[in-house]
Sequence to fold (492 residues):
Amino acid sequence: MADLTPGLEGTDVRSFIDLDGTPIVNGYNGAINTLWRLERRDTGCGAAAWDAVLIKSGFGGLPLQFGSAVIGHTLYFAAEDGVYGRELWKTDGTAEGTVLVKDIRPGPEGSELRQFMAVGRTLYFVADDGEHGFELWKSDGTRSGTRLVEDINSGTGSSFPFFQATLDSRTLLFTAEDGTHGRELWRSDGTRAGTRLIEDIQPGPGGFDVTVLNRLADGRFLFAADEGTHGSELWTTDGTPAGTHLVKDIQPGPMGSMEVRFGVQTVVDDLLYFRADDGTHGPELWKSDGTARGTRLVEDIVPGPVGSNPFDLLRVGTDQVFFGADDGTHGQEPWRGEDSSRHTLLLADVWPGTETGFGPGVTARRKVYFFGENPTYGHEPWVTDGTRSGTFLLKDINPGPANAVPGDPNTPFAVGSGLMFDAFEPTHGDELWWTDGTPAGTRMADINEGPGTSYPYGFTRVGDQVFFTADDGVHGREPWALPVACFPDVED
Fold:
């Protein structure tokens, strides 16, 4: 544990960031954001303690915004210091190396930065300089190298770029609204000439909004789009107009077959698995290699137009897809799909009968952990390796039908082929648990000793430790760490 704020009050730890192997902490106390660096102090026998070094205090009450903003040994973030408004800052983990990069919107109002994405050595972000609205900006970490890339929606209107992915080591792929074509796909290499609309997929001012882009090995992306004629269907792009086109009209006509949201698409073995409704089989599991011929129904789990409604699609290992589905007999339960004669397999009827026993899962190497529910054990941790014999309840942490985890649990965290999570039982309260995927290897740390609750969350791996925040009942809520050596199959 690192005690940032001595005493019972503790620290509202808002985030942990990995700065080139150094843990950086954004703490909050009394409407003030603080930035800390954690330094490891060996205490012998492989144990470690952590000293907290204050980097800078005095930032305003809104949380510091980081995103994917580490380039080399520099962390970029948006902060309000009471003078310049919310602007772009950077730190190398030291007090003297923590400085304002640029006052993009001069004066106290701030440019209200949002989103960060590193492409090579260039930081892209969205900001409003008071003249151009919210537009695409870039920075090399210097004042002179921080500038507007392009005023996509010219004038004071905002294009509100939404970053999607990188096309290559120099090119950003994003959606934007230019005031003429609606929201469409754009690309930028950081120059005005290289910032351009890829394709007006839905002609006119309506546009469409890409929620999920799925990358294949050859650099193409598969996504759902509605061009105004076929409804929401499967499209592909390689970042060029010629390479952007409809893959297949799965449900012929204007209705559309695909949903534009997270959890119903994933790439496994260079194939996109997704939920689609062709108008005949209902919402079922489909797959595509990015060609019309290679886009097909995996299996009609519920024959007829009702569909099994696959959800929470996850990649397991290199060649399997894990998902939840309702076959009309067992309720929503865990399934596996693969290229075999059987195509799909019900892994377990967690809640026997037609009731639903399956909740969202987390991939950890060749395993998926999920919180299942049934009338005997309540809501508890389960694991599967993609086989029926390898799908089982890990531990009835809160014995009997009472729940160890709520219906909407804190986000668990995969480490190697293991998992960290928080769970409740009346003897020790809500505490830290971790597992290697076996009942014997499912263990608990009673941080707030006795029935008190430490309520751990915010798991983030930095180097050979996983950091999180917890309240031990003595120091208040502070940063804690668990060595990754506690988990199997951990890569350095």
Observations:
- The chain has no helices and 39 strands.
- Residues 251 and 278 are 4 Å apart (CA to CA).
- The longest strand covers residues 32-44.
